[in-house]
Amino acid sequence: xxxxxxxxxxxxxxxxxxxxxxxxxxxxxxxxxxxxxxxxxxxxxxxxxxxxxxxxxxxxxxxxxxxxxxxxxxxxxxxxxxxxxxxxxxxxxxxxxxxxxxxxxx
Length: 106
What we know:
- By secondary structure, the chain is mostly helical.
- It is built from 5 helices and 2 strands; from the N terminus they run H-E-H-H-E-H-H.
- It has helices at 3-15, 25-31, 38-46, 77-84, 97-100, and strands at residues 23-24, 59-60.
- A two-stranded parallel sheet has the order 1-2.
- Helix 2 (25-31) crosses helix 3 (38-46).
- The mean pLDDT is 94.
């Protein structure tokens, strides 16, 4: 499988993450049959063409941490987008994955 087709699969999966839910990089890689490709998922998120309009802000790290501050237009942007969708956060600032991790069907 080439990098371009893998990125297309990532983008298709990310497009389906509903508001108020998140997926982790590793979870996406596993769902696509590439359990060791979490870094590639991160690369795909960083290189996502803006015209696709994907909810990349709903992809987080395995501990419920957010992307670096320069992502999504500046510090706090991802946090604000997720809070606006009702994503719960823990006292330590991480996402409460127990209550909002999305598990796609199929």
